[in-house]
TrEMBL record:
<dbReference type="GO" id="GO:0006164">
    <property type="term" value="P:purine nucleotide biosynthetic process"/>
</dbReference>
<comment type="subunit">
    <text>Homodimer.</text>
</comment>
<dbReference type="InterPro" id="IPR036291">
    <property type="entry name" value="NAD(P)-bd_dom_sf"/>
</dbReference>
<protein>
    <recommendedName>
        <fullName>Bifunctional protein FolD</fullName>
        <ecNumber>1.5.1.5</ecNumber>
        <ecNumber>3.5.4.9</ecNumber>
    </recommendedName>
</protein>
<dbReference type="InterPro" id="IPR020630">
    <property type="entry name" value="THF_DH/CycHdrlase_cat_dom"/>
</dbReference>
<dbReference type="GO" id="GO:0004477">
    <property type="term" value="F:methenyltetrahydrofolate cyclohydrolase activity"/>
</dbReference>
<keyword id="KW-0658">Purine biosynthesis</keyword>
<feature type="binding site">
    <location>
        <begin position="163"/>
        <end position="165"/>
    </location>
    <ligand>
        <name>NADP(+)</name>
    </ligand>
</feature>
<keyword id="KW-0521">NADP</keyword>
<dbReference type="GO" id="GO:0005829">
    <property type="term" value="C:cytosol"/>
</dbReference>
<dbReference type="GO" id="GO:0000105">
    <property type="term" value="P:L-histidine biosynthetic process"/>
</dbReference>
<keyword id="KW-0368">Histidine biosynthesis</keyword>
<dbReference type="InterPro" id="IPR000672">
    <property type="entry name" value="THF_DH/CycHdrlase"/>
</dbReference>
<keyword id="KW-0028">Amino-acid biosynthesis</keyword>
<dbReference type="InterPro" id="IPR020867">
    <property type="entry name" value="THF_DH/CycHdrlase_CS"/>
</dbReference>
<dbReference type="Pfam" id="PF02882">
    <property type="entry name" value="THF_DHG_CYH_C"/>
</dbReference>
<comment type="function">
    <text>Catalyzes the oxidation of 5,10-methylenetetrahydrofolate to 5,10-methenyltetrahydrofolate and then the hydrolysis of 5,10-methenyltetrahydrofolate to 10-formyltetrahydrofolate.</text>
</comment>
């Protein structure tokens, strides 16, 4: 039995970093990233640490601001506004999830669209769907970049996206449409889920349910991207069962697939934000 080819996010992320280093060496300034974290949620602590480390390794100016979990919403909004006005700051990221007393939507709308390196501001969401230039969410960007790197032609392909979150599923559907894919988005209310996922030539799974997708859900020879990161008894598991490697032609590993691409795209967005703010969006 031949097992699916592994699509390594680590490998592709390295090529992104190489290109970014070249761009950075040609700039007369150093782009800067400011990450805000509230509270001590262990996953957020480790994600923020990783983002800061990668940014520094790449030669960006990176700074993390940590606030107590009970920080009032108005205080957070005030800090964001100060960073919006700060000419030294190119990218602002507020690590999610936020404590329950803070309205995430208000926070995301407060970040200047030109500094919105997570791509969650409604203006950037609109640009994604209207075909304009803007800052788009890192994980979906990472998925598309990874597929393109491995020569996966998306034009006209049947692509099924499992999951419809604002962070992954929906923006990914928008990006895939921009690549001329034929996109179907499925979710927890979809009937006959395995029947629909079996139509996919490219299947992207972002549900947050460990090993939900079994081999019967996958069309033989399909390319499968597993976005899921589930901590189960100290291990990281994807949303795709390992047996899928028996039917897919290519599969991303967890960890080491989409995760490294997400961080690489954050770095790319920071450089892009720095350029957009200085030179404006291309017309
Ligand atoms: P989310 O906001 O919880 O959304 C999950 C989506 O999956 C929802 O649309 C939900 O449907 C759907 N869903 C849940 N259970 C389902 C089921 N049994 N059958 C069909 N659909 C189901 O999650 P998210 O933020 O998109 O994240 C998804 C996964 O990706 C998580 O494991 C997360 O940790 C991971 N992730 C990884 C990265 C990375 O860089 N690698 C980045 C972001 C997220 P409804 O809308 O109907 O509820």
């Amino acid at each position: 039995m031949t097992l699916a080819r592994t699509l390594s996010g680590h490998e592709v992320a390295e090529t992104v970093y190489r290109e970014l280093r070249e761009t950075l060496s040609s700039l007369p300034f150093v782009p800067s990233l400011r990450v805000i974290r509230l509270g001590e949620d262990p996953a957020s602590v480790s994600y923020v640490r990783l983002k800061d480390k990668r940014a520094r390794e790449l030669g960006l100016l990176s700074q993390v601001e940590v606030f107590p979990a009970d920080t009032p919403e108005e205080a957070l909004l005030g800090r964001i506004e100060a960073l919006n006005q700060d000419p030294e700051v190119d990218g602002i990221l507020v690590q999610l999830p936020l404590p329950a007393h803070i309205r995430t939507e208000r926070v995301l709308e407060a970040i200047s669209p030109l500094k919105d390196v997570d791509g969650f501001h409604p203006l950037n969401v609109g640009k994604l769907w209207s075909g304009g230039e803007g800052l788009f969410p890192c994980t979906p960007l990472g998925v598309v970049h990874l597929l393109k790197h491995y020569g996966v032609e998306l034009r006209g392909k049947e692509v099924v996206v499992l999951g419809r979150s604002n962070i992954v599923g929906k923006p990914l559907a928008g990006l895939l449409l921009r690549e001329d894919a034929t996109v179907t988005v499925v979710h927890s209310r979809t009937r006959n889920l395995p029947e629909v996922t079996r139509r996919a030539e490219v299947l992207v799974v972002a549900v947050g349910r460990p090993h939900l997708v079994r081999k019967e859900w996958v069309r033989p020879g399909a390319i499968v991207v597993d976005v899921g990161v589930n901590r189960v008894e100290g291990k990281l598991l994807g949303d795709v069962h390992p047996e899928v490697a028996e039917v897919a032609s290519a599969l991303t590993p967890v960890p080491g697939g989409v995760g490294p691409m997400t961080v690489a795209m954050l770095m790319a967005n920071t450089v892009k934000a720095a350029l957009l703010r200085r030179h404006g969006a291309p017309r």
